[in-house]
Amino acid sequence: MTKINTDADKIEELLSRSVDTIYPNKESLRELLTSGKQIGVYVGIDPTAYYVHLGHSTNYLILERLHKLGHKIIVLVGDFTAMIGDPSDKTSERVMLTREQVVVNMQTFKEQIGKILDFDNAENPIEFKYNSEWLSGLDFQKTIELASNFTVQQMIERDLFQKRMNEGKPLHLQEFFYPLMQGYDSVALGIDLEVGGTDQTFNMLAGRTLMRRYLDREKFVMTTTLLVNPVTGEKLMSKSLGTGIALNEPADNMFGKVMAIADEGVMQMFMDCTRMSMDEIEKKQKRLAEGENPKNIKLELAREIVTMYHGAEAADSVCDRWEKTFSDKQAPEVVPEVRVEHGAVLLDVLVENGLAGSKTKARHLFEDGAVRNVESKEKITDPTTVVSETITLKIGKKVFVKVVVS
To answer: According to the model, what pLDDT value does residue 86 have?
Structure first.
């Protein structure tokens, strides 16, 4: 039987690092974690895109800490719920995916998440499940029974639904079913704790309601901080916006995209996306407060993240190339690539690949002459420029990207 680690310091870090809120409360969960009992924990992810990004890694790093304490871990892929679409971070309805699209998207999910979690651990195996296993078998009677646990008023109290109704945007009935299905995942798994971003709070709390109704058990919910720019409030990673840095991103791409992150987002990424100790993170924060160039700290972040996913040798190599590029002011030997369709608009390319935080910021880059064609050395000032052939761009002083026409 797996031995449970009840070290107070490790539990305190677990309950505080990257954590926003714990339901019903932090004290009760601490008591459970110090009891010596093995608990069941899960994180769910919908394959609405083909990659898992650094924003998701926050939850898997928390699962890793729980696994090292000896607890039972489940990674749940929402292959059924992805076809409905989670409205949690959308102010317009999601496009429903086909089964074929979902199957393609989730092909490498286990491999990507396995860069953080040890799926080969035989002593305390980590389960990898799909919610179609139980949701695809629900008949209409069971679905109506699930729906009877909630009122329409409870559903439309959600801020994003209120916003859409006030703006006269459509609110489709199937969107109400998403929290029911995610809530039922908790029942099917019989877990003690669900971990997810703050945008999942409503859905995870629906699971608490259903756990009490069907299993007469408490379910803890841990909401985790989302990666956002603390100045603008914009998400640093989003599948919906196409701005995520994938866990299986090539090393050069990963390094370059981290270096393109706004300076003000760097410290939260150290906190939420790395295994670096809190003491080390605090030292970096102090260096920034004392006036050190943020570029130095960001280079350390990029090296740390590439090391996590590609190893120290790859990180050293890409860091050396990066430093040589900018000390010599020349284009790097290896440039991160993004693939686009013929006729793509450059402004959209920058925004969708995380090279500009918003369309407004992208327009400013063009207007300020900060976007250049590396080959011709000409400035591109028209944001509506269409990509008709592969082109290498320099954006600002630091960012190079090769836009490859598929």
So the answer is: 66
What is the pTM (predicted TM-score) of this model?
0.80
Angle between helices 294-310 and 278-289 (to 10 degrees): 160
Q: Distance between CA atoms of 401 and 183, rounded to whole angstroms?
A: 42
Mean pLDDT for each 10-residue chunk of the chain (406 residues)? 92 97 98 97 92 94 98 96 70 67 90 96 96 94 92 81 82 85 96 95 94 96 91 73 80 88 90 96 95 92 96 92 66 71 86 79 86 86 88 82 84
- Helices 294-310 and 312-328: crossing angle in degrees, nearest 10, is 150
Q: Who contacts 379 (Cβ-Cβ below 8 Å, separation ≥6)? A: 369, 371, 372
Nearest to 405 by CA among 345, 362, 360: 345
Q: How many helical (H) and strand (E) elements, i.e. helices and strands, does the chain have?
A: 19, 12
Q: Which residues contact 280 (CB under 8 A, 6 or more apart)?
A: none
Question: Which residues neighbour 297 within 8 Å (Cβ) at sequence distance 6 or greater?
Answer: 266, 267, 284, 287, 288
Site of tokens 């801020």: 159
> What domains, with CATH codes, occur in the chain?
8-224 (3.40.50.620), 249-334 (1.10.240.10), 335-406 (3.10.290.10)
